[in-house]
Write a structure and sequence with these properties.
mainly alpha; Lysozyme; two-stranded antiparallel ribbon; 19 helices; 69% helix; 1% strand
């Protein structure tokens, strides 16, 4: 402290003595002492103070940063020593963190450099004025150079003040930007957390539904006394197979088929022995479409289940095929439905999309609705809104993003993607974004099309329309639409409520147009 005061006193006396020797007026000498010299001394003092703060904090940070790892790695045979060293390491680490935070907050290093630079600039200006050098070399006496010197000194002082204000504003902007970024990051973290919680809730809901379905199926099996696998079930022998192709009375065939199956399901193994010996359950399984993930989003968990509902679905499809063929070949009894739910012009206005696309693709969609017996105005509303949000228009499309995006589906066992390249090969296609090997396999079998072997067939308008209609029928989407539960319609397709605002907008537009 004494040394610092001695230097300051020496500098003040030396510069003050030089000012007294200048050939300028007494008023100008007072200015030089009270304005220039006083400013130089103040800057020197601030620079020294900020330098000391900066060095002390940096020394704590540097030395503590070296000591903490050494103390953490220190091991002794004495447990007391280890505990003591541990507490010391904790204290030092806290001191390091505090010193770094204080230095960052107050900016002692930046202030020191600024004060030192301005002080040296002011001293250089004073020495040049006293020696009539530099910008003052054109003057013969100090009195003539005084006005220029005073102007330059004031300019330096003003520049220093403006620099301080600018740095303060910049720091405030940085603090505001950091605060905004922290808020944004917090919001993103909260959104991710909410999304994860929603996905967990959806998975739990699906798991509970699947367990309830399995328990119901097991109870049905136990009640029926059946001990074989689903693949062991055959049509009763009293119903000839060729009757599905040749009988003109489709209603009678359907009734006989239903009665025969009920008879087979309700009979005990002892009663059916005369027709077929019961075998142990097969390891083969039939995928139930209800256990597959929702389409139109990141599909959720699925697994294979053996159940009697699958048999009912298969036989219903067979009967539908028989009815369709009978209507085609049966003359007057096979008259096509003439009631048109909507027109391409209406669809184009509702969905705000290309009229040509509506003319091209609407007939196939309506035919698919008839095939799966969901030809209903409310179902059409849900179906149109679904197509609009999943495709962005009114035609089958590939999932947006390209291969770099589709690779996220790689090794997704819940989608059945178990081979390299499955993620890209079985990316989303069509009206409802059929995704994953399991879905392509399942819906390909339902439609009688090799979608698993040739996934691009899902872009065929007729195939894509049938996938959409089949999904609406079997996953209960059509039933939800008929009851007016549009949120359930979106959730059954999407697995959540992503895009609900857009979906609900087109539902309202369709309701206004179609009634």
């Amino acid at each position: 402290m004494a040394k610092k005061n001695a230097y300051s006193q020496y500098l003040k006396e030396t510069l003050g003595g030089l000012i007294d020797k200048l050939e300028v007026t007494a008023l100008h000498k007072e200015f030089l002492k009270n304005r220039w010299l006083d400013q130089v001394m103040w800057l020197e003092g601030r620079a020294t103070k900020e330098r000391n703060h900066h060095f002390r904090l940096r020394m704590v940070t540097i030395i503590g940063g070296v000591l903490v790892p050494a103390m953490v790695g220190f091991k002794s045979d004495s447990e007391n020593i280890n505990v003591t060293v541990g507490w010391i390491a904790l204290g030092v680490s806290q001191a390091v963190a505090i010193s770094a935070a204080v230095e960052e907050f107050f900016g002692h290093g930046d202030k020191y450099r600024n004060y030192r630079s301005t002080a040296e600039t002011m001293k250089i200006e004073g020495w040049q004025f006293m020696q009539l050098a530099g910008p003052y070399r054109k003057f013969k006496v100090h009195e003539d150079a005084y006005k220029t010197f005073a102007q330059r000194v004031e300019a330096y002082i003003q520049k220093d003040v403006e620099g301080f204000v600018a740095r303060l504003d910049e720091k405030q902007e940085d603090d505001k930007r950091d605060a905004d970024e922290a808020t944004h990051n917090s919001e993103k973290a909260l959104m991710r957390l909410n999304q994860e919680l929603e996905e967990r809730a959806q998975r739990l809901e699906l798991d509970r539904a699947r367990l309830a379905e399995q328990a119901s199926q097991q109870q049905s099996i136990e009640d029926s006394g059946y001990s074989g696998s689903l693949l062991d079930i055959q049509m009763p022998s009293d119903i000839p197979a060729e009757s599905f192709e040749e009988s003109p009375d489709d209603a009678a065939i359907a009734q006989e088929t239903s009665t025969g199956i009920q008879s087979l399901m309700s009979s005990s193994p002892r009663e059916t022995t005369g027709q077929r010996t019961s075998r142990p359950s097969s390891n083969k399984t039939i995928k139930s479409s209800s256990s597959l993930p929702p389409l139109g989003q990141h599909a959720l968990e699925w697994e294979e289940n053996v159940n009697f509902q699958a048999l009912k679905t298969i036989l219903t499809e067979q009967n539908s095929a028989v009815e369709s063929e009978s209507q085609t070949n049966g003359g007057a009894t096979g008259t096509a439905i003439t009631n048109q739910l909507t027109t391409p012009d209406q669809v184009s206005q509702i969905l705000e999309c290309s009229l040509e696309d509506c003319k091209t693709y609407l007939p196939g969609i309506l035919n698919a609705m008839k095939k799966y017996d969901i030809y209903d105005g409310s179902v059409l509303i849900g179906l149109l809104a679904t197509i609009r949000i999943e495709t962005g228009g009114f035609k089958p499309v590939h999932e947006w993003g390209g291969e770099s995006y589709w690779k996220r589906y790689e090794e997704r066992a819940d989608l059945g993607n178990v081979r390299p390249g499955d993620g890209v090969k079985y990316h989303g296609r069509g009206y409802i974004q059929l995704t994953g090997r399991a879905n392509y396999s399942t819906y390909g079998k339902k439609l009688g099309v090799d979608l698993e072997g040739n996934p691009d067939l899902a872009m065929d308008p007729e195939v894509s329309a049938q996938v959409l209609a089949c999904y609406f029928k079997e996953r209960g989407v059509a039933t939800a639409a008929q009851s007016g539960d549009w949120r359930k319609v979106r959730k059954l397709v999407n697995g959540g409520y992503h895009g609900w605002d857009v979906f609900s907008k087109y539902v309202e537009r369709a309701q206004a147009q179609l009634g």
